Amino acid sequence: MATIENISQMRDKFPALRQKVHGKDLIYFDNGATAQKPDSVLSLLNEMNSGTNGNIHRAVHELSAKCTSLYESARITIKDFINAHSTEEIIFTSGTTASINLVANSFTTKFIAKGDTIIICEADHHSNIVPWQMACERSGAILKILPIDENGEWMMDKLESLIDESVKIISVAHISNVLGIANPVEKLIKIAHKVGAKVLLDGAQGIVHENIDVKKLDCDFYAFSGHKLYGPTGTGVLYGKREILEDMGPWMGGGDMVESVSLFKTSYAPPPLKFEAGTPNFIGAAALGEAINFVQQFDREFIRDQEYALTTSLLEGLKSIDGVKIYGESKHKLPIYSFNIEGVHHSDLAMLLDKMGVAVRSGMMCCEPLMTRFHTTGMVRASLLPYNTIEEIDLFITAVQKAVKMLK
Ligand code: PMP
User: Fold this and answer.
1) Which of these, 37, 94, 49, lies nearest to 281 by C-alpha position?
2) Candidate from 222, 230, 366, 368 with most ligand 1 atoms within 8 A of CB, to mutate
3) What is the pLDDT of residues 58-107, one digit of tens each?
4) Residue 85, pLDDT score
5) How far apart are alpha carbons 394 and 313 in whole angstroms?
């Protein structure tokens, strides 16, 4: 059970949650955009930046050896966290966007030809739309779209009609950053694999709210960012099945990704280094490992209970507001709610909430096609993490009601 004691114990680790904004105690409900960082992550960043700083994999000196060890230990932590087969399957990137672009480049170059099909979803983030449009332009592949219904759920019957042997990859969000719905990815993966199509899951939100087991999921790629998982910005991961990564060429060339270089020819290092050209964000990667150690201190049941309590309480609170329209009502919701209020502009509401110390996101949330689907120019989003509380939700709902009175 999630108890007040262990939630406040968790909150205590986050200095950013203790600040005042516009003279008010901060209520931070923009975790879908980026999470705050616990002390342990901040200390490691500080310690490495101010002391243990030596470029990895290259030198024999102590600082380099320590950083290499921290970087490679973080890779092991991540491998265990998502239950990958081996560390060769864990590629460090600068975030979800970079991970998806890596696949959209390397996988497409190797495996996709003119007339093949790539499928994405209409609810996806721009990071999972634009790279695939670019991949189609380069390769001559056709882009097809998995639609969603009025509640924001995938229309699985439509998927069956899009799928055939021309489909080489389906790239979709595990959890929508706007709708907060956990999509039926297991089912989609089974359907895709029947025709030999690979599946990339955009796990930017999924990694935060679900227990990820890539072996059980059987996805071919899983992409996520560190900064949404209590880790540093500019960090991320691409998980890929080893046999696919071995067949894919590198996307970027440079130092550390080679086995041997002559002036006219290069042989590449095996994965993961083949995909990590140049000096990586090794301090960030080590701190991402620390963020995952932090998450793992908390009992999974505690996290699940707390997320459930926040989700139900937020829904109840929002439903009590006159004229509210909530987008994406599903049984599979996480504490990410996007909404509008009749007669109120989303950005006006978000601006007034900010003045009351409440941080929410407003606008298109990098999902313009989804906004078009719901005939709106934007929404307000409250996205919570287990360190948020029911008391904060009550204060948030009161603040929304006050703001709406001022705006109407
Ligand atoms: N996909 C989803 C579902 C997201 O929520 C985000 C971040 N909002 C991204 C992709 C992009 O992540 P990043 O900006 O960290 O690369």
Assistant:
1) 94
2) 366
3) 889 999 999 999 999 999 999 999 999 999 999 999 999 999 999 999 99
4) 98
5) 9
Cα separation, 127 vs 348, whole angstroms:
26
Query: 328 and 278 in one domain?
Result: no
Let me know: does 393 contact 310? Beta carbons within 8 Å.
yes
Together in a domain, 291 and 308:
no
Whether 110 and 200 share a structural domain: yes
pLDDT, tens only, 143-153: 999 999 999 99
Pocket of ligand 1 (CB under 6 A): 32-33, 95-97, 125, 127-128, 173, 177, 202, 204-205, 225, 366
Judged by phi (left if over 0) then psi (alpha if -120 to 50, else beta), residue 257 lies in alpha
**Euclidean distance between CA atoms 41 and 46, whole angstroms:** 9
Residue type, 373: R
- Residue to probe by mutation, ligand 1, list 205, 336, 338, most atoms within 8 Å of CB: 205
Residue 157 is which amino acid?
Answer: D
Same domain, 110 and 21: no
Active site residue 366: yes
The DSSP-derived string for 370-406 is: HHHHTT-S-EEEEE--TT--HHHHHHHHHHHHHHHHH
Q: Report the CATH number at residue 376.
A: 3.90.1150.10
